[in-house]
Amino acid sequence: MPLKYAETIQKMTLEEKASLCSGHDYWHSEGVPSAGIPSIMLTDGPHGIRKRAEKTSEQRHSILKGAPAICYPTASATACSWDTDLLYKMGQALGDECLKERISVLLGPGVNIKRSPLCGRNFEYFSEDPVLAGEMAAAFINGVQSKGIGTSIKHYAVNNQETRRMTVNAVVDERTLRELYLAPFERAIKKAQPWTVMCAYNRLNGVYCAENKWLLTDVLRRDFGFEGIVVTDWGAENDRVEGLLAGQELEMPFSGGANDRKLAQAVRDGKISEEFLNQMVDRLIDLAKKSEKVLGDYTYDAAAHHALAREIAGQCMVLLKNEGGLLPLKKKQRVAVIGEMAKRPRYQGAGSSQINPTQLDCAYDTMVQEGIAVDYAPGYSTDRKNKISDDMFLSEAIAKAKGADVAVLFIGLTDEYETEGNDRKHMQLPPLHNRLVNEVSKVNPNVVVVLAGGAAFELPWADRVPAILHSHLCGQAGGSAAVDILFGDVNPCAKLAETYPMVLADVPSTHYFPGTAVSVEYREGIYVGYRYYDKANVGVRFPFGYGLSYTTFEYSDLALSAGSIKDTDTLTVSFQVKNTGGVDGAEIAQVYVADVDSTIYRAPKELKGFRKIFLKAGEEKTVSVTLDKRAFAYYNVALGDWHVESGAFKILVGASSRDIRLEGSVEVQSTVEAEIPDYRASAPSYYSGDLMHVPDAEFEAVLGHEIPPSVRDQRLPLTLTNTFEDAKNGKWGGRINRLMGKMLDPDSMAGALAVQSPIKLFIVDSMGVFSPEMAEGLLLILNEDKFAKGMGKILKGVPGALKRLPNLLKSL
């Protein structure tokens, strides 16, 4: 492939070319000024900018608190809008904000599939469904990049848990990979071409994603047609030479120059051809040059962007229940507002995506500003130093509720329940929150529960309250947006992007998540979310695609463009949707496809298209969705391609996955002759839906090989890719683990990262303050109990560490 910047590359030294392949510091790429190649800034997203703030004597910002920025709703919320135009608009706004801050690449969106509701980072991901996740991601990417700002779709791939996310081996069969976990990346890449793809920390079928050639080259570039660069997640590099050869251009953050020297030496030794390195460098230069085109002085209207954040939030909140038309409330009613979240909203998740908002709306203040008669009780406290008893909180809340026309309870998951770096242990809300609902509903029949949280949770009291509004994590304007919906200024139109099961025990991955200290097995296969609940005929609290409105919609007149097609043809699905209520509103119509009789195991139905349409009261519109081969295909591992099994397919149009309004059928004829894998004898559980305890032999049948070891071989020495948790059975490793357990809460982000991060990450994250030589000393202690020798190496590195410390502090 010809080089775009051949003349520039020809003039560069080998060392200069190698230097471009790692960061300059924590948030900047390396530049080569003499060659006209600028350094560019990459910062965390995806629902707002987390740019390192300028530090002053009056103000100090931690690494997880950046300069003030607009905090938009998280992906778990925006996915519920099912509105690609809205995501494009949000992306454009973020692009404008990046221009002002001279940011070249926004690190988002995250499109990992929500395999389990327990994943601590689910708030940052879109959906359990790859079509919805991919469409929303593509719209967001196109919006940001329309402003000349790059994006970084992440975390590629199968990063579906926070527990041991940096080392765990995800064991997944290829068909499941292709149909679920890789599919949203594929859709977004083909529709939007993000400038970068961020590879994940974890291993995939035994190989770290950062060094996985099959993943980064064979699939990403050959199959998906990706044209940009691959950047590591921060500290995901394990072997720089192997990473480059696998197809990964940029290591982040700064490696202290050590890995640059390794790349240059590998070229001299012939392990990497200079032509191959030149191709990688050409793409890196292209990224820098594209970014340079828009660098300049810009501004944006923060007030207008806050208003946009409020508009987006109003499109993301899901009305889950509204018995007796309790909502919308009347502004003349006396309202008991109960719950600390009404004054201190939970509006985002914790971790690298945490935004320092320019302002923060709360529901209580908004109601007061709009002249609503409000009586407030905190109900609970999120302050760990709180000394008020639960009974006192409850007594006050009950008293306020008794004297009100309606009681609005603001409850949900608190910060410690869902955070990057840690998974939840259960699906329950804080106990006092549940008690609050139960007790208040005894004294006031008009109870509205406003939920906050970025993942599914159990709602044991759902049948006892008349109204539930799910506000998700809706950003800095979420509080005011909730009031807009509660009082009817905005008609809710969002629908769930994930299933809400009754209890955790119903989730198909429950017995496999989060796996062992070594691996996690995806034994449930393709049956994630509604695919499983439909297959196993399991009841759910709220189904995928479900959401209510203050109006009603009627579906009619389904028409298919043909009764029979070849798999090379497209099929147009058309139908009418009418607003039959008295309020203007938007409906999200969903099109599912079901294979009537298949040899390969299939989900009962799969989402293949959707449309969001706005209708005035009484208005009717025609909706059309076009289906191509992929809508009917499964991934044939023997063929190594997508394949349609000839036969009849149902076309199902619905208001949710469990509210199908229209049904048609089409015959599809395959144009490719291929053997269809038949697992009915070798893996019957995948046909019956009995997936909670898939036997080893059946999982191996679909895997195509033996299940890899799930425990660490203790005879093997610890290396830089091992964790302190791996060392817990050793003399010194055990002592270190016990000490960390006393100093840090194991259920906190800091506690989990301390014991589950690989030793090499301490080198990377410290930017060499903790040097490779010091790490060697630590390994001597952990592996061979050579305390004196190991400590000598560590102490020898202290002077150098002190010299490098200012650079680390400067970059954070």
Summarize the model shown:
This protein has 812 residues and is α/β, with parallel strands linked by helices. The protein has 25 helices and 29 strands. The chain is globular and about 75 Å long.
Number of discrete helical segments: 25
As laid out across the biggest beta sheet, the strand order is 10-16-15-14-11-13
Helicity range of the residues?
Answer: 25-40%
Major sheet description: 6 strands, mixed
Distance between the termini: 38 Å
Please, what is the oligomeric state? single chain
- Strand proportion, as a percent range, falls in 15-25%
Pick out the low-confidence regions: 56-61
Total strands: 29
Secondary-structure content class: alpha/beta
| Nearest-integer average pLDDT | 95
Radius of gyration: 27 Å
Shape: globular
Task: Explain what the structure shows.
- The protein is α/β, with parallel strands linked by helices and 812 residues long.
- Strands 10-16-15-14-11-13 form a six-stranded mixed sheet, sandwiched between helices. Strands 1-3-4-6-9 form a five-stranded parallel sheet.
- Helix 13 crosses helix 16 (478-486).
- The protein is globular, with a radius of gyration of 27 Å.
